[in-house]
Structure formats: structure tokens, C-alpha cells
Amino acid sequence: MLKFTDFPLDPIILKNLDKLGYETPTPIQEKALPILLKGNDLLGIAQTGTGKTASFSLPIIQYLSENRKPKLPGKPRVLILAPTRELASQIKENIQEYSVDVLLKTAVIFGGVGQASQVNTLRGGVDILVATPGRLLDLMNQGHVSLSSVEIFVLDEADRMLDMGFIHDIKKIVPKIPTNRQTLLFSATMPKTIEGLARDLLRNPQKVEVTPPSTTVERIAQKVIYCDRGTKNSLLEKVMKEEQMDLVLIFSRTKHGANRISEYLQKNKIPSAAIHGNKSQNNRETALANFKSGKIKFLVATDIAARGIDVDGVSHVINFDVPVDAESYVHRIGRTARAGREGIAITFCDDSEKDALKRIEKLIKYIIPKENYIEDPQIKLQRSREASKAVAKARENKPAGEGGKPKVGYRFRNRR
Ligand code: AMP
To answer: Are 123 and 150 spatial neighbours (Cβ–Cβ below 8 Å)?
Structure first.
């Protein structure tokens, strides 16, 4: 497996990546970095979530740090065009994170807000300008930006740009950029129009492509929630309250785990059932029939038991734990988004499961968005009280000397 340190990147950039917790490059980064660091043009077919922003930003930062020039007012050396203000802002933020201490100036401009502060920033001189096409043209026409010093030009999410009707703006912008530039074009899809655009803009481009393995996965909104091991029950309850759910399949790695989840749900008066190898065939069939008919909303299953399940209306898959085997993740989440519908997959991940999660992301070529769960202190207190009670009860029930009350004189007898 390649590491970022295997690429000729400045130690300051490597330190920044380390701070952000980036350990290994994603597939698009592995493929694009060598091409871009050599200064070649690139046609990248990749979606958001693949790590494409870093794949083009890192070589840009590297190039600018090696080839320093004074910042000229209104004359950026790198131009990155993005279709929306959200994406443009995101790109700028990422670049700023990757380039801490590299002494570069990055700015973003987009429409829908006043232009004064954007103009001011440009006047101060910027190295990298991230822009939406409309506002860029506007400021170019007013003489606040000139593209005559641009050395690297990136067109991000080109297919979305065309869908949003930016083609005319782009056609006006491109001729203002010097032709002896390096050009990068990223698009999630490759319709004929994009092929044409790529032919016009790029010179001997190298093509890299990363796409998720199956179309099912694309229709599933995936999310990971980081949590502490002991807080998964209360997290499950919270998710159940917050999400609009129809039928929910909850996965557990082990039969014991599945039973524990199911017991917890029953205790909280949530109609549910568990299916796994230890249940009788009859038992499993009834549980499945009740789930299909909507009589019970929540079905807890192990990987093996769930392989045969084909229920159309599963709106959510909850991975109570992260499957050790990455393929199982794809099988699990494939239980939702059936019959052309959309689905949601939520994975609870504690510290010990982070490596397994990385393997999954590598397999599906997608970095799943993450959230953190901090348990409410009241719930935490109640949980620890219940745990102490359970321990005390278990002690009382056990015969003396087996974890129960110590036998009187036990220690002394042993010493002799
Ligand atoms: P993008 O596809 O560029 O929108 O990136 C998706 C998410 O992945 C962003 O939150 C990045 O910060 C994160 N990311 C990008 N590259 C890596 C990496 N090599 N390791 C971990 N996270 C990454």
C-alpha cells in the first residue's frame, strides 16, 4: 500500500496531512498524484467523496512551493472553477488545510454575496483562486481579475457545470488563460459533451477513473457515526428517534450481539425481532414475515442470516458494528435501496473498528461522511448506575468464592 511519504511532497505538506489524519492516499490520489506532479494534463473521472480535491490540490501546492513568484494584484497563478459556492468554499478550505505554513494565499469568489470583500482580497494578490464561473466573469469584466498569469487551470465537476448551464461562461473564460498551462478536468460522468470539452481544453491528457463498484451503492446515502463502545445502545435509540424510518435492518456481527440488541429494543418497548443461526427455522420465518408485512419495524440480523433477505421497503440499514470483512459491508447496505428506491446506511464505529472501516472505504472507493456521537451525561450516568446494579445482582446470585462475596477467612487459609 502506498503512503503519502512515497510521493515527492514537501515535508510541510506531509505534516499537514498527518495532522488531518490522512494516512494512505485514496485510489484517485494514488493514480493522479504521479501524473500531476510531473506537470501533465489530466482527465479525472471521479465523484465527490473519492478524495479528488486533495488529488489535485496537493500537486498544485507542491508546484507553487517549489516555484515561488511574487503575488500580483488580481493575477492568480492557479484557477479552479467549481459549479457551486458550497463546492468552491469546500475546495478553498481543503487547500488552506493542506497548505498551512506553505505561505500561499488562497481565495474564493462566488455570486449571491457582495463583491467588495472579494475584490479587496484579489487586490492584495492571491496564488490560488477558486471561483464559480458567473462571479469570475463579472469580476474579469470589471477589471478586478486577469487570468494572464494562470499556470494551472482546474475545471471541477465539469458535468455538473454543463447541467447548470455554465458552458457559455466557461467558453468565455478559457480563451483568457494562457495556452501553455497545465489543465485538469474532473467529471463524475463522461457524456459526449464532456468528451468534446476535454478534447478542446486538454493536451495529451492522462485519464484516471475511479467509480464505485455498483450502481446500488450510489443510491445509498451512507454515514458513519463515531462513538464509544458502550454508547451504541443509546446511539441506536437516538437515531431511531431522529430518522424517518420505514423498515430497518440492524446488523450485528455475532448472534450474541444480535440477541443483546433485540433484548434492548424489547426492554424499551420497540417491536423487533432477531434472526440468526440459533433460532429455529419457524422462528426465523415468522420474524421475516412480520418484518415484510410491516408488523415489526426493526429486524436484527447477523450477516449470514441476512444473506437471503430480499425485502423491498427497507429504508435503513444500521450497522451496529463495522463488519470485519469489507465485502460484508456491501452486502449489508445492499439490503436497502432495492427496486430502484433510495436507501440510508448508518454505521456505528468505535475506536477498535476504525481499521476495518478503512478497508471498507478502500473497497468501495468512497470516503463515507462521518459524525461524532457524544452521549448525553444523564444517559451516561443512568447507564453506569444500571451497570453497577447488574454487577451487584450477579454477585449476590453467585455462590461464594465464584466471584460472589468472598468466603470468610479465605485469604488466610490460602496463605498457610
Ligand atoms: P473529496 O472527494 O475531495 O470531496 O473528499 C472527501 C473527503 O475525504 C473529504 O472530507 C476529505 O477531507 C477526505 N479525504 C481526502 N483524502 C483523504 C485521505 N487520503 N485520507 C482520509 N481522508 C481523506
So the answer is: no
